[in-house]
């Protein structure tokens, strides 16, 4: 079952990728509030990625959410949500702004982050979401301000807030006199995908890749190459080749469930990837470190 939360330093609003059954229950064990979900991205229409969404939306409304919520999802799922809410007579207390992922041609700027869908290969249309941090606090280029003869004053605070100002008749652009406190962090969270190479044009500068590893390489060959899923070896090799510093593997076949049963997947991934490697478990929490500019 899939559900991944992404939270940010600069806001209490957060983003959810996929919403399987049980998502609400798992949230009870975290500090995340359903009332603060601002963006929901669904990778594809299979139930283990979306059956929890109607209830989640209802709970968000019951928890007092009034600000608009952005939903990026396949068109069929958007139809399903509207029908589910309508047939159960649910009236949301917020505006649900829906974007059919099939029609998105560019990155969405969502105030605290930017979201870009990436098409994958699965038995049904499936997508990854590249999430790039924005709204990072600014720092002043003090030496440049001094060199340009600009004395301190209230205009410093305005520049730091991203506002352009006028000083002694001269227009000062915030972008010229400030810089981000840290490099924007970038992650990619994938839906089901049998072809990691579909990501190859989008992974430059990515700090964390979350990708399924349903099988070991040998087991995938035994069950058939075109299951719509990946194996630990291929995704580990891909992450190593593209110098991705953090890799989290998810979506393991039931054949690996139980004490010690993940060891074949872990051994295979470790053999082909030397970065920070994680294997998903309930409530796993990862922190992407800040890289100073």
Automatic annotation (TrEMBL):
Molecular function via GO: 3'-tRNA processing endoribonuclease activity; zinc ion binding
EC numbers on record: 3.1.26.11
Reactions that this protein is recorded to catalyse: Endonucleolytic cleavage of RNA, removing extra 3' nucleotides from tRNA precursor, generating 3' termini of tRNAs. A 3'-hydroxy group is left at the tRNA terminus and a 5'-phosphoryl group is left at the trailer molecule
Active site positions: 48 (proton acceptor)
Cofactor note as given: Binds 2 Zn(2+) ions.
SUPFAM superfamilies, per database record: Metallo-hydrolase/oxidoreductase
Cofactor field: Zn(2+)
Sites where the protein binds Zn(2+) 1: 44, 46, 122, 192
Keyword annotations of the record: Endonuclease, Hydrolase, Metal-binding, Nuclease, tRNA processing, Zinc
Pfam families the UniProt entry points to: Anti-Pycsar_Apyc1 (PF23023)
InterPro entries: RibonucZ/Hydroxyglut_hydro, RNase_Z/BN
Domain of life: Bacteria
Binding positions (Zn(2+) 2): 48-49, 192, 251
Keyword set includes Hydrolase: yes
Assigned protein family: Belongs to the RNase Z family.
Biological function: Zinc phosphodiesterase, which displays some tRNA 3'-processing endonuclease activity. Probably involved in tRNA maturation, by removing a 3'-trailer from precursor tRNA.
Assembly information from the UniProt record: Homodimer.
Name used for this protein in its record: Ribonuclease Z
Organism whose genome encodes this protein: Pseudoalteromonas byunsanensis
Gene: rnz
